[in-house]
Specification:
Blueprint lengths: L2 E7 L2 E7 L1 E3 L5 E3 L3 E6 L3 E9 L1 H13 L13 H25 L6 E9 L5 E5 L5 E3 L6 E5 L5 H7 L6 H18 L7 E7 L7 E5 L4 H20 L4 E4 L2 H6 L2 E3 L2 E3 L4 E4 L6
Antiparallel strand pairs: 1-2, 1-10, 2-11, 3-4, 5-6, 6-7, 7-8, 8-9, 11-12, 13-16, 14-15
Helix pairs in contact: 1-2, 3-4, 4-5
């Protein structure tokens, strides 16, 4: 399994992916899920992949082989044309391999995030599905995730807005990844992080994060400790006995006899039920 997340902000883009792949508990290896196409001053294109490793590698290989063709990534005039190229590559591999995979009971499973900027066009990120179709990230939800996404989603929903700074976005993405690592052993270090500043048309920051990275270790320890502190500071629920009428509404029926048992409700902080 894997986890990849991309954030689209007014200030630029943030991409983060893990590099663990596994085929069972005793077959764990490392493969990078992030690819970069950069022509400084003209375009920066980032692609991250999740799903069946053989399929996603085949898609990436086809994209690389057609890179300089008239329909390749280097010839694209917009990020929309770029994601169309990627979708075409997914469909090409599906047409070639899907039937044979099906005979062995293997689903054609791949998803990709494609993002970047070409010329003076705005920064854009897309998610590409197994059918080669795709969606674009919107301001209402300025991030996309693929892979094991559920554990890292809550912090993104609470923090990320289009106006979020690149520094805060990178920090939030790392917290999102740490939450995923904490809850799912199939996602693991090392990580690849790329930060792109709007209109720079070259990679702003790139970092390969492994177990020796001091900052990620600080994120992991500090986030866990602060969560416990905030949790401990929250008030415990205040229980009050319910009225007879309220108790009747939650009665237990035993045979033909309706019996009630004492119940309690939680008061709000204002003391109201």
């Amino acid at each position: 399994m894997t986890y990849c997340v991309a954030l689209r902000l007014n200030a630029g883009l943030v991409f983060l992916s893990d590099a663990r792949t596994n085929a069972g508990i005793d077959q764990i290896s490392t493969f990078r899920k992030m690819s970069l196409v950069e022509r400084p001053g003209d375009r920066v294109i980032v692609m991250m992949s999740a799903g069946n490793l053989a399929i996603t590698q085949a898609v990436r290989q086809h994209i690389a082989e057609t890179m300089e063709s008239e329909k390749g990534l280097l010839a694209a005039n917009s990020m929309y044309e770029v994601v169309q190229c990627v979708g075409d590559a997914v469909r090409f591999v599906h047409h070639r391999d899907a039937k044979a995979l099906q005979q062995f009971g293997i689903d054609f499973n791949c998803s990709l995030i494609v993002g970047g900027q070409i010329g003076q066009e705005r920064c854009r990120i897309f998610e590409v599905y197994s059918a080669g179709n795709f969606i674009e990230c919107a301001d209402e939800k300025p991030y996309l995730q693929i892979g094991e996404s559920k554990y890292g989603k809550p912090i993104l929903d609470r923090v990320i807005r289009p106006e979020t700074s690149l520094g805060d976005a990178a920090k939030c993405a790392l917290v999102s990844m740490d939450s995923t690592l904490r809850s799912n052993l199939s996602v693991g270090l090392p990580l690849d992080m790329l930060v792109y500043k709007t209109d720079s048309l070259e990679v702003t920051h790139f970092s390969h994060i492994d177990a020796t990275n001091g900052y990620f270790d600080q994120i992991h320890n500090t986030w866990g400790e602060k969560l416990k502190e905030v949790f401990s500071a929250l008030p415990n629920p205040v229980w009050t006995e319910t009225s007879a009428e309220e108790a009747r509404l939650v009665s237990l029926r035993v045979g033909n006899t309706a019996e009630t048992r004492p119940t309690h409700t939680i008061q709000t902080l204002a003391g109201q039920q």
